[in-house]
Amino acid sequence: MDRLELIKRNVQEIVTDEQLIDLLKNKDNPTAYVGYEPSGKIHMGHVLTVNKLIDLQNAGFEITVLLADVHAFLNKKGTMEEVRETADYNKRCFIALGLDPEKTEFVYGSDFQLDPEYMLNVLKLTSTTSLNRARRSMDEVGRQMEDPKVSQMVYPIMQAIDIAMLNVDVAVGGIDQRKIHMLAREGLPGHGFKVPVCIHTPILLGLDGTKMASSKNNYISVDDSEEDIQKKMKKAFCPAGEIKDNPVLALFQYHILPRYNNIVFYRPEKYGGELVCKNYQELEETFQSGELHPMDLKNGAARYMNMLLEPVRNILA
């Protein structure tokens, strides 16, 4: 896999491809970042962007992880003390998941977001951003947006200024961050800052085939025990032969196969014995044909997810 293929792997959208290619041609060590709002457990939806940061790191990018404690506070995720504690937990998880701590800069939002220069730039951008534009950018990520607080309108402005002040070339996030990133691309040049490339990863379904939600407990958390994962996978939505919107296949596509060269399913001999798939396309075809039973797919997913998350359990123990 060449450099560009690695960057684009499992990505839903790049804004823009041309700008990314130009960046790779003209800069030896481009920079990229993700901002994580410390607001609870790290689940596999978060890990999707961690995987992309690892891909970018392997493609020669310098990586910054913003632990956005001030953002979490503004978005009503807890007191500053509570969100800072969660941020520290997030950092340990990200390192255990494979981000190289020697090559990754971890930055707390409160380390620079309260500085005069930062706040002046926030105020400047508020002066050129309409209230409707700010509100629309929060549609996918804000809480209680039927009655938003002023702090939630400042949130996307701050995220845009984060990109500017961290001086990164690429902003990475889930596709739910798109409106905020577009605000940054449109608003930053007018204040003397460069336009970032934006890389967006998909939003994964929960294990029950519906929207992932903490209230449903339909996701895998990085600190789930082996038993937790096995129980969740047994109940996971996985209709035989169905490819579209299959959350178990999504675990293989986005989390397992990017880390393992091939995957092995261990089945009793009377059900076909050991089965090896060398890539996701082969796995999809095998499952769609009926050669691989849903329960065997689930058992394989549970085994590999437990292997993948074992380093996280160890570092949090």
Automatic annotation (TrEMBL):
One GO term under biological process is: tyrosyl-tRNA aminoacylation
Q: Name one Pfam family in it.
A: tRNA-synt_1b
Q: Which GO terms describe its cellular component?
A: cytoplasm
Which GO terms of the molecular function aspect are on file? Answer: ATP binding; tyrosine-tRNA ligase activity
Swiss-Prot/TrEMBL catalytic activity: tRNA(Tyr) + L-tyrosine + ATP = L-tyrosyl-tRNA(Tyr) + AMP + diphosphate + H(+)
The short motif 'HIGH' region is annotated over 38-46
Location of the protein in the cell: Cytoplasm
Question: HAMAP family attached here?
Answer: Tyr_tRNA_synth_type3
Family recorded in the similarity comment: Belongs to the class-I aminoacyl-tRNA synthetase family. TyrS type 3 subfamily.
Q: What does this protein do?
A: Catalyzes the attachment of tyrosine to tRNA(Tyr) in a two-step reaction: tyrosine is first activated by ATP to form Tyr-AMP and then transferred to the acceptor end of tRNA(Tyr).
Subunit structure and binding partners: Homodimer.
What name goes with this protein?
Tyrosine--tRNA ligase
